[in-house]
Write a structure and sequence with these properties.
Layout: E1 15-18, H1 25-55, H2 62-91, E2 95-97, H3 98-131, H4 136-139, H5 142-160, H6 162-168, E3 177-178, H7 185-189, H8 197-230, H9 237-267, H10 275-283, H11 287-299, H12 301-314
Parallel strand pairs: 1-3
Antiparallel strand pairs: 1-2
Helix pairs in contact: 1-2, 1-11, 1-12, 2-3, 2-5, 2-11, 3-5, 3-6, 3-8, 3-9, 6-8, 8-9, 9-10, 9-11, 11-12
């Protein structure tokens, strides 16, 4: 498809084409089934979790409100990325409009940063619950959740806003084929005729600043939790405490690991297939979203009981 002039768009590009595994058509066939199943699982599991927390009065507590926030972020991230990827796989609908592309770019960057920040707040919640249990009711209140949610929203909405703005202001003078399944910042920016060093530096800076600081605080929280747990003398207290935050830590570890692998494969792209980081980028928007509610549902007794009550009411 040839780019054509659009009066509302001074760059000369009216739409982009997402070149999603076109060099490996068999990937599209084999990925479409598991990707669609993961998408349905993520949507269904997060919806059930949200409904259970909303309907079950015993779950109207700060920890579960934070879990609800995580589920909402997961749903929006999945809906932003996966339907378009499946449309490419099934119907070859590779075109994406100029505004839609930069909107997708913004949602992906801001909501992934929000998810990282939510994990950090949840780690703080577990730290207070285990290391300062007597002070927990006075620190982790509904007002705390409101302030935390406001902080998560404002910090990440404002700091990630320049990413799509910087990319949209570039001059796209003809090339419009994005070598990716999604409108990733650098995949789009490298199509322009301008110098993209500012875009690259800003993406790098906020990536390491936001995600790096969140991960540091998360691991600091769990280091302090582990130290406090090992000092417990009561029988079974260590196992109970570790079980309480074990699922949380597993999910954070997976979230950060897949992100780290994506960064490393992107840096070493000359040594690995260019399709690998693209695949990891897509999976990073659906696998954590599918795992989060399942791991919490399996390992949290209160949520399991809430789901059982909800199912009984439905029957």
């Amino acid at each position: 498809m040839t780019a054509h002039k659009n009066d509302t768009n001074p760059t000369g590009v009216s739409d982009f084409l997402l070149n999603c595994f076109v060099r490996s058509p068999s990937w599209q066939l084999w990925l479409s089934l598991p990707l669609s199943l993961l998408f349905l699982l993520a949507m269904g599991a997060n919806a059930i979790l949200l409904i259970t927390i909303r309907m079950e009065a015993s779950l109207h507590e700060p920890m579960y409100y934070l879990l609800s926030l995580l589920s909402m972020l997961d749903i929006i991230l999945c809906l932003t990325v996966i339907p378009k990827v499946l449309a490419i796989f099934w119907f070859d609908l590779r075109a994406i409009g100029f505004p839609a592309c930069f909107l997708q770019m913004y949602i992906m960057n801001s909501f992934l940063a929000m998810e990282s920040c939510t994990f950090m707040i949840m780690a703080f919640d577990r730290y207070i619950a285990i290391c300062h249990p007597l002070r927990y009711p006075s620190i982790i209140t509904d007002q705390f959740v409101v302030k935390a949610a406001t902080f998560i929203l404002v910090r990440n909405v404002l700091i990630t806003l320049p990413i799509p703005i910087l990319s949209a202001r570039l001059h796209y003078c003809g090339r419009n084929v994005i070598e990716n399944c999604i409108c990733a910042n650098m995949s789009v920016s490298r199509l322009s005729c301008n110098d993209v060093n500012v875009n690259r530096l800003y993406q790098f800076a906020i990536g390491w600043t936001l995600l790096g600081s969140d991960l540091f605080l998360i691991f600091l929280s769990y280091t302090l939790i582990l130290r406090a747990v090992l000092r417990l003398k009561a029988e079974g207290a260590v196992a109970k405490a570790l079980s309480t935050c074990g699922s949380h830590f597993i999910l954070i570890l997976f979230f950060s690991t897949i992100l780290l692998v994506f960064i490393l494969t992107h840096v070493a792209k000359r040594k690995v297939s260019s399709d690998v980081p693209i695949l990891l980028n897509v999976l990073h928007h659906v696998i954590p979203a599918a795992l989060n509610p399942i791991v919490y549902g399996v390992r949290t007794q209160e949520i399991k009981q809430g789901i059982k009550k909800l199912l009984k009411k439905g029957w």
